[in-house]
Design a protein that fits this description.
two-stranded antiparallel sheet, Aminopeptidase, 10 helices, single chain, alpha+beta, six-stranded mixed beta sheet
Length: about 300
């Protein structure tokens, strides 16, 4: 058979074919993208970071703040010329957070500018007697120079004003591991009167025990202030504090320090005292019984607590 006469073959040959089209004859189709540009997303992220950076630096910057707490027993008709019966060198490092309290014996015998050698608690008295309002600064310098710890701020607490301050917050709960100052072991609820009596008590206690008592009371006050239930009474508490507290800590520092105390909590406060092992009792030429510091032992503790 002649191939040309085969109808199937002829049909296959004569089928119309699709004309070829060049690449430039197709129209591009744009597919809308729902994804945001990477650059735009990164820009928004940087705005968030920049907005959060100042508060983060303010609250958590690794900048240590040292201040001196002075409990001045200026009542009993002595006005502001009381001596600093309570001396606590305090440090706060918000980043960790770390709160350290070091109680200093009032009878520690140290050199002081303009006074010579004397009890460390007299630095406040002599300066205040010479120029009212200068006592806290003189005590701060005496502690800073002798302990070789930079201290920029002070907080003076008038002990005779504690009564109204503690009553304003509804009292405090003091937890004792053993009987102290006439109070039994366990949790004791103290109003202003009993709290002041506890702070001043010398019953069956020496200066080292009284330093520990002062720290316990301070920690109880801090714990009470950190309880949300007492916050509605803050205006009254702050009003009472005006008659109790004198400080040069700037107001912009208070939220930063407050958050550090809140994060540390009562159990997170590292409290120490200059112990009996760090001093040597002796009697001066004038017959005063005082304490000579062992600066090697004290220096090890302050290096650990204050990062010298």
């Amino acid at each position: 058979m002649n191939p040309a006469s085969d109808p199937l073959e002829t049909s296959a040959v004569t089928q119309p074919t699709r004309p070829e089209r060049g690449l430039d004859s197709f129209q591009p189709v744009r597919i809308p993208s729902t994804a945001k540009p990477v650059r735009k997303r990164l820009g928004c992220l940087w705005l968030v970071v920049l907005a959060l950076l100042p508060p983060l630096v303010y609250f958590f910057a690794p900048v240590r703040t040292n201040f001196l707490v002075l409990g001045i027993d200026g009542g009993l008709g002595r006005g502001d010329l009381g001596r600093a019966d309570t001396i606590i060198l305090t440090t706060v490092s918000p980043l960790r957070p770390y709160v350290g309290m070091l109680s200093i014996p009032r009878d520690l015998w140290v050199p002081m500018e303009g006074v010579g050698e004397n009890r460390i608690n007299t630095a406040y008295f002599f300066a205040e007697a010479k120029q009212p309002g200068s006592g806290a600064g003189a005590a701060l310098r005496a502690v800073s120079q002798n302990f070789d710890v930079p201290v920029g701020y002070y907080l003076v607490v008038r002990m005779d004003g504690l009564l109204g301050f503690i009553d304003a917050m509804g009292g405090v709960d003091l937890k004792l591991s053993k009987p102290a100052a006439g109070l039994p072991a366990g949790t004791n609820h103290l109003d202003g009167t009993t709290a002041l009596a506890f702070a001043r008590s010398r019953a069956n206690a020496d200066d080292f025990s009284r330093m520990a008592q002062a720290q316990l009371l301070i920690k109880a006050v801090l714990q009470r202030l950190l309880q949300p239930g007492v916050w509605p009474a803050l205006p009254q508490i702050l009003h009472s504090a005006e008659a109790v507290i004198n400080t040069n800590i700037p107001i912009w520092q208070w939220p930063r320090l407050g958050l550090a105390f809140l994060r540390a909590g009562q159990s997170g406060i590292d409290n120490h005292v200059i112990s009996r092992e760090m001093v040597r009792p002796f009697t001066t030429n004038q017959g005063a019984q005082v304490l000579a510091p062992d600066w090697d032992a004290i220096g090890k503790l302050t290096a650990e607590m204050f990062g010298r």
